[in-house]
Automatic annotation (TrEMBL):
Keywords: ATP-binding, Kinase, Nucleotide-binding, Transferase. This is guanylate kinase. PROSITE patterns: GUANYLATE_KINASE_1, GUANYLATE_KINASE_2. Residues 134-316 form the Guanylate kinase-like domain. The keyword Nucleus does not apply. Belongs to the guanylate kinase family. Pfam families: Guanylate_kin. It comes from the Eukaryota. SUPFAM superfamilies: Galactose oxidase, central domain, P-loop containing nucleoside triphosphate hydrolases. It catalyses: GMP + ATP = GDP + ADP. CDD domains: GMPK.
Length: 401
């Protein structure tokens, strides 16, 4: 048998969080550093809303933090365990298989950045997404270089593999552009308010308009079991690099500035003033793209088909893998009764229920080392498998059954 669980938090009984929290209901507590996070809330008959309160141990004060991301919907109870001191893993009881594992980010880079902006305590919800942990793809490059064209080709060839992160923008729609498909077209005052409310993963002022990726835009794609593609400028790429969304960063270069101008003009979507502005900005973007250290790959879009083949190659789509269109990952079937503990880099969910005992699988193991990314929105790469603690033994948790 392996070493004893490092940290176990089981459900607390009704109204017994031990810290004098005023709200009623079923809660779990997890202490990280000076702070105790009390998660849970009011019981409404048999369901529990999921709220967060923080008890600051040195001062003895309660803080209600700003909560970012979509919070979990109601459930029948919660278990929690801290992971790496920057996030808390939550297991929801009585939830659907794709909705039972969540992460509350309490001190990740993203949360620390938001704390600075908001000037108060911030936490962020992130839902566990099971399955292939392929990184989102960030594509940047000067206006007119062909980013949109390359992304359309990828989405057309691999419709079940990729999903486009639909950005918000304050610029006016072009004649063929549809709201909610190409962009979420919005007013500046509304977008500024939503930025202030922490709804955006990144945003930037680009060519005189506001553009931004909402947390929800990334969540929607991850929930569909697809790999997210972001078409954003270099400032946005820098912000994403600083967030906990672990992505691949690709910069697309034109063969020359003359060719870039030709493409922008022949697209015919911008006024002369806009074209000149975009060309001026292109010079700075090219410098940053080549020297900022943000980008993992630089591609030259001279011949479109050759560039597309290079893009596919670096995304691992040039061989047999390309033929494998992936289906959406399945969730985890958790019984209502269970307890959660941590052992090394594995989370053990003990399901001592008669049904699972009958199926001779009473432990569910979550390998934390497989997790990718985090807030905003979704934590990808949940590697979960069931074992029988009696016949497989706890030492057997390294061997997925
Ligand atoms: N390799 C290429 N050779 C010639 N024309 C190209 C090539 N790649 C794209 N184009 C054309 O260049 C124009 C600009 O491409 P696209 O709209 O994809 O650029 P973009 O980088 O997405 O621009 P923006 O940042 O302004 O959205 C389009 O008319 C497209 O058909
Ligand atoms: N930082 C962000 N930049 C974005 C986003 N969506 C698009 N963009 C970039 O804006 C320019 C101009 O786009 P256009 O559609 O007006 O031609 C281009 O470089 C895009 O990459 C975003 O969400 N954030």
């Amino acid at each position: 048998m392996g070493e004893a669980p490092a940290f176990v938090v089981d459900n607390l009984l009704q109204n017994q969080d031990g810290f004098g929290s005023k709200s009623k209901g079923c809660k779990t507590t997890t202490t990280i550093g000076d702070k105790t996070f009390v998660i849970g809330g009011e019981n409404d008959e048999s369901t529990l809303s999921v709220e967060v309160q923080i008890f600051d141990n040195p001062t003895g004060n309660w803080v209600t933090p700003i909560v970012l991301g979509t919070k979990p919907n109601t459930c029948k109870g919660l278990s929690a365990v801290s992971l790496n001191d920057d996030r808390i893993l939550i297991v929801k009881k009585g939830s659907t298989p794709d909705d039972c594992i969540w992460f509350l980010e309490v001190d990740t880079q993203f949360v620390r950045g938001q704390k600075k902006i908001q000037g108060t305590d911030v936490v962020a919800w992130s839902k566990g997404a099971r399955g292939y942990a392929e990184k989102p793809v960030v594509i940047s490059g000067p206006s007119g270089v062909g980013k949109g064209t390359l992304i359309s080709m990828l989405m057309k060839e691999f419709p079940s593999m990729f999903g486009f992160s639909v950005s918000h923008t304050t610029r006016a729609p072009r004649c063929m552009e549809k709201d909610g498909v190409h962009y979420h077209f919005t007013e500046r005052s509304i977008m500024e308010k939503e930025i202030k409310d922490g709804k955006f993963l990144e945003y930037a002022s680009v060519h005189g308009n506001l553009y931004g990726t909402s947390i929800e835009a990334v969540e929607v794609v991850t929930d569909a079991g697809k790999r997210c593609i972001l078409d954003i400028d270099v400032q946005g790429a820098r912000s994403v690099k600083a967030s906990s969304l672990e992505a691949i960063f690709i910069f697309i270069c034109p063969p020359s500035m003359e060719e870039l101008e030709t493409r922008l003009r022949s697209r015919g979507t911008e006024t002369e003033e806009q074209i000149l502005k975009r060309l001026r900005n292109a010079k700075t973007e090219m410098e940053q793209g080549n020297s900022s250290g943000i980008f993992d790959h630089i591609l030259y879009n001279d011949n479109l088909n050759e560039c597309y083949e290079s893009l596919k190659k670096l995304l691992g789509l040039d061989g047999a893998a390309a033929a494998t269109q992936r289906s959406a990952p399945q969730g985890i079937d958790l019984p209502t009764d269970h307890s959660v503990s941590k052992m090394d880099n594995k989370i053990i969910i003990n399901c001592g229920t008669p049904e699972l005992k009958k199926a001779s699988k009473n432990l569910i193991v979550l390998d934390v080392s497989s997790l990718k990314g985090g807030a905003p929105g979704r934590t990808r790469g949940l590697d979960v498998y069931a074992i029988d603690s009696f016949s497989d033994g706890l030492n057997g948790i390294n061997q997925p059954s």
